[in-house]
Design brief:
Oligomer: single chain
Largest sheet: 2 strands, antiparallel
Helix content: 40-55%
Distance between the termini: 31 Å
Order of helices and strands: HHEEHHH
Amino acid sequence: MSDLDFIKDKQLRSTLENSIEYIYALFEESKNGEQKELYKEETYRVIILYVISAIEAVLMYFYKERQEKIEYIDYRFVQYLSENYTHIKKKDFPVVIAVQEKIVKKERDISLRDLVVLFRDKKRIKEKTAKDILELNDLRNTFHFSKPRTKNCDLKSVEAALNLLVYTLEGAPKALVINTK
């Protein structure tokens, strides 16, 4: 019995199992004392990327299984009013009338932050877990080659990330339960 048995999508479960196995192999390899520090740090970055991707995949799986919806407000049919109308605090900006419409976000437009906020607000994940996931995601977002690497990616960060992944996977089956009350 795997810790991922709650995932009924066989392809996703297999991908996650293989990725977690790879994460573990990388982590073990990073302990090799003969490796240069640069190699270790880059390995830690890859581990962080994989961990946050695994967490995101699990949260997206929840989203689909629970048939959740993330909506945003769109303003359509915007009509500008005459310059005679002004806002007391924003006198230099035009005043408009528009139709406000709630739109369901397309799956491809849903970010990890969207998922975390949704499940935090619905009390499916704890406030601290949400904060930890978002902090790890912020660390991951510093890995772009064109961005300065202002945050360290060290053994402590990797161990915290791995603990967060284990915690997420252990709590996942409970989070999938849909309350019908």
